[in-house]
């Protein structure tokens, strides 16, 4: 039997039953990578010798009667996580030889759960792109169309899953970096509630791996089934043992409902600042139709929804004010000069991005206060609804675009061009407020590309969108291997 596309849940059952060994699963995964990854380039740092050692250790542990959630299951890890003895570069040539001495806390949790780490997956430079390419490791291609991107910044992980290179992967998300690659590659991903999973060691090369609380950014699971997402989230969730973990443990509430018919869902298929392409709109409607057919309460409008234009503006301000915090003084002064030259009437997202890059601390505090008002608005909405279904980006995977100035790139939405970074506003809907969001496959575009949608849930009720994802998978189907 070929195991490469089986779920982690199925592999765990087979390992417990003695139908297969971890060594066999690992050898099969490595053989597939060596055969197929030449054209995909998802695994940028293989660690096959240590993977085989870990697999043998997992088999020995099982023979002694041990059982852990991921014991013996092959997985991959986004390049941006520290793994002792492997390079962490974030795709930046100046850090090509940086080797961290310790594992990131999430890598430690994977290993403690028994997972076998096959290697690290490719990323964009500095994790700051919606694609995955860099000078060190080259370009990762979309498994469905090699001329297109798998997304970013967790694009290598999504491509690896779509190709059967391990059953699970871990990534991170600041601007859709888990959800967009899942959408582009036809797999599943979950952006946890902000602060739910410790991030220590998912840090730029050379920076100290401190237990800091990041703004907007999270780490989270990727998989080929919704149930596998929940399995991996249980391994990842919890505060850092150096800080909150001293006093706190995590006990996520159960999903609000167990049947589709009981869910109350708000469906959004448009945004006031960005058109939704027809292929993605069809995916949203497919999910909405499945919910209606199952008897769920589905609404398309509510006065409770926070203002989407203000939300997009606020997200852009928070995201880009943080992105330039470590810019050299000369570069910062150039940005200030450009921002000063903007017309006071220019309220475009491009202008918002530029102004945010030169925010004062007072500006940021004001934006943060506005964010709290939005969070309160979401709490009120989720008193009446259980989840929100909406797009992740306006289009399926787009063609590789390596223009060195991202501000010159454009995204084509059914023949209309938008600034490249405008497509982030859809993912930012959940990110700005710190809400959990699960990316699920929702069909194919007319040319056969995967299309996904996101299920946004209430803060710290991650099990609700995860359970909804599982029920929808049973109704509309889920992952399909690339053809």
From TrEMBL:
The keyword Ion transport does not apply. Residues 24-464 form the Amidase domain. Transmembrane segments: none annotated. One of its GO terms (cellular component) is endomembrane system. GO terms for molecular function: amidase activity. It is an enzyme of class 3 (hydrolase). Keywords: Hydrolase. It holds the Pfam family Amidase. PROSITE patterns: AMIDASES (PS00571). Its EC number is 3.5.1.4. Gene3D superfamilies: Amidase signature (AS) domain. NCBIfam families: PRK06170.1 (NF004816). This is Amidase.
